[in-house]
From TrEMBL:
Gene (name only): tatA
Organism: Streptomyces genisteinicus
Protein name according to UniProt: Sec-independent protein translocase protein TatA
Gene Ontology MF term list: protein transmembrane transporter activity
Membrane-traversing stretches: none
Superkingdom in the source lineage: Bacteria
Basic and acidic residues bias (residue ranges): 81-92
Disordered: annotated span: 40-92
Length: 92
């Protein structure tokens, strides 16, 4: 990815910008942050995988072989309109 010359230039710029005293502090804090990130990722991964003590969800099969159909009417729960009562006359 980076060659030796590019890494040397980046290191020289870091020493000039941050100073030789702050560079070890920066490396230490960067390493500490990386360790924290790794441990948190490991903890999340172990939380996500199911353990042997948890029981799998139980799927209930219908007791009878018939299909349940919705009641007549639309999806909003309004009753179906009978053809003999459906007229163009306004309702009072």
């Amino acid at each position: 990815m980076f060659g030796i010359s590019e890494l040397a230039i980046i290191l020289i710029v870091l020493v000039l910008v941050l100073g030789a005293k702050r560079l070890p502090e920066l490396a230490r804090s960067l390493g500490k942050s990386a360790r924290i990130l790794k441990s948190e990722a490991r903890a999340m991964k172990s939380d996500r995988t199911p353990s042997a003590t948890t029981t799998p969800p139980v799927l209930h099969e219908p007791s009878s072989g018939h299909t349940v159909r919705p009641a007549p009417g639309d999806a909003l729960g309004r009753p179906a309109v009978r053809p003999e009562t459906d007229t163009d006359a306004p309702r009072i």
